[in-house]
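Field reference: "sequence" (input) and "structure" (output). Example, Ethylmalonyl-CoA decarboxylase:
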Amino acid sequence: MSVSPRLLQRQRSSCVYSSIHGFNQDEIKEKLQAFHGGSIDLLKQDSGIAVLTINNPSRMNAFSGSMMIDLEERVSQLENWPEGKGLIVQGAAETFCSGSDLNAVRAISNQQDGMKMCMFMQNALTRLLRLPLISVALVEGRALGGGAELTTACDFRLMEAGSVIQFVHKHMGLVPGWGGAARLVHLVGSQNALKLLGGAVKVDPELGVNIGLVDGVLEGHQKTEGAAPLLQQAENWLSRYTKGPAPVIQAVKKVVLSGRELPLSEALRTEKDIFGTVWGAPANLEALASKSKHK
């Protein structure tokens, strides 16, 4: 598949690591590709909301090497989706994700390869978070280790009643390596992040809401009579933030992203540039012609 120069530039600007950091993406992809199993499935819907499914049920949706590559490729597709407005990340077969497949981890347990895998996944998840789409992780069952880190790479997190998010890295003699610790501090503060990582705390929906990690709790339709399927509930929840033309929703995400990541003066200049893309554009002109905000 050919990739446009514009898309390549967008990918590079969203990445944390490049060749100047000694990172060779093709090299690590060749190593990861040797460890097969599972898939990352992407469904783009006419509503502008896409569904990304972590699909490796026999290993609690753990990431094999080939799935890490799948993730990077699916993110590339979403970066190049002009009609996109929202994204739901879910796991197959009633569980979210249990992190890395231990078979792949053991095979690349030397420090050099581990660091390359770390950089690859930090790039992929940073690009996921920086997508011009409003994203939500739909946590059903368990999100463990790297799966917990994956939830932090979305703008929002919804949990099914009875589900758990747990940063179990300490039990494996590790700390997060996919960017989860840095993102967690931004989400819940350093004190709560230290508790969750140092204690490998099991975060249930109530605790998640209390510390600001979780944005909503859903009732499973199999457990609560009359409840809609979880994915439908998540789409309904997300749709309140994705109503409207795609260029406007994408602009909303971009200005929030710049405010979150950039120094104030740079964020203001970026906001000005993004404002310029929607001022006088079709959605703005249509709204001016048909509405009065002063009524």
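DSSP finds twelve helices and nine strands in the chain.
The longest strand covers residues 49-55.
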